[in-house]
C-alpha cells in the first residue's frame, strides 16, 4: 500500500494547518482512502473506483485526465502548491 502525507492550508481558513493522508493500492484510479486531521481530530473516508468514474463523467472529463488531476491535487504536494485550493466545511 502506498501512502502520502501533505500539509495543507485551506483557503477557507488560511491560518489553520491540516494534514491530508491519502493511501491507495495499485493506482489512485482504483480507489483510495483519505484521512484529514487538524492535529486534534481526524476524519476518514474512502473513494471507490466507481465514484471516481462517476465524478469524471459528471465533470465531462476523460477519466484518465481526472485521475491525473487527483494525483496532482492530493499526492504531489510541493509541486502543486498554489495550484489547488482546499476549502474545509
UniProtKB/TrEMBL annotation:
Pfam families noted in UniProt: XRCC4
InterPro entries on file: DNA_repair_prot_XRCC4 (IPR010585), XRCC4-like_N_sf (IPR038051), XRCC4_N (IPR053961), XRCC4_N_sf (IPR009089)
Superkingdom of the organism of origin: Eukaryota
Keywords: DNA damage, DNA repair, Nucleus
Subcellular location: Nucleus
GO MF terms, alphabetically ordered: DNA binding
GO cellular component assignments: DNA ligase IV complex; DNA-dependent protein kinase-DNA ligase 4 complex
Domain XRCC4 N-terminal: 17-88
One Gene Ontology term from the biological process aspect of the record: response to X-ray
Keyword Membrane in record: no
Name the UniProt record assigns to this protein: XRCC4 protein
Protein species of origin: Hemiprocne comata
Lineage of source species: Eukaryota, Metazoa, Chordata, Craniata, Vertebrata
